[in-house]
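Weekly puzzle thread! Below is a chain. First person to post its structure in token form gets bragging rights.
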Amino acid sequence: MGPSAIRYAGLQSRLQALGWTVNDFGNLHVPVSETIPDEEFFEGYPAHHLTAVAEVAQDTCAAMRDSIQAGESAIFLGGDHSMSLGSVAGALSWAEAVGVIWVDAHGDYNTPQTSPSGNIHGMVASILSGLGPDALRVGDRLLPPDRLVYVGVRDLDREERLALRQSGIKVMTMRDVDERGIASVMQETLNVLSGVSAIHLSFDTDSLDPTVAPGVGTPVPGGLSYREAHLLMEILADDGRVRSLDLVEVNPILDNVNSTARIAVELTASLFGQRIL
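Winning reply:
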């Protein structure tokens, strides 16, 4: 229901008002989770809905590649963050060097062996980096550690924390944001990715503080403020290298009068050129 909530909040009309031509290609087929078995395993460890997630990832990757070939900027709406298995894999098929900015309260760097829940949306970044089940790896390129930067992280599982420390990936936590401000954090993020010519932004709405975005599945206090999130997007717009965007984890069942979807639309507008003056 997340994509419908974001559409209902006026994403298309907001982008059109900024001068963009918007083609909405509708939803990819995603099976209703309650109608399929979720007790799937990888090497004896839970990996819920593995087969279905892998199939959707393949379709998502193909859709991203189609957008790249058409010369489009692509926006993918979720759903949970497992969607990014396909969108990031597709983005990595660009001919030029691609970096990924992962704005999220969580690391999504578990594997079935370390995950407390067995939920694949908490394993996405590790799978893209070459860990975890081969069945969930789509596309023909892995995401190198020096081309991935996290922003806004504040909730990591114990073994996930250890794995990230050893990975070589740049992780900008909420402490970094608190101490240095979002502008400095984003400048360092872009400096880390100075060698890439295209950026894919994977934006999880639970990166925002729950007082700003209540309609998420796994809220964590102490997140980005409304203005910090807008400035993040404005800085990326000024940089000019973002070619594609994930908007994930909007859950209208948990939301307050669709406020989280509306904020997702407002942030997207900032990324695509809306200015105060």
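Puzzle host: Confirmed. Bonus trivia for everyone else. The two ends are 34 Å apart (CA to CA).
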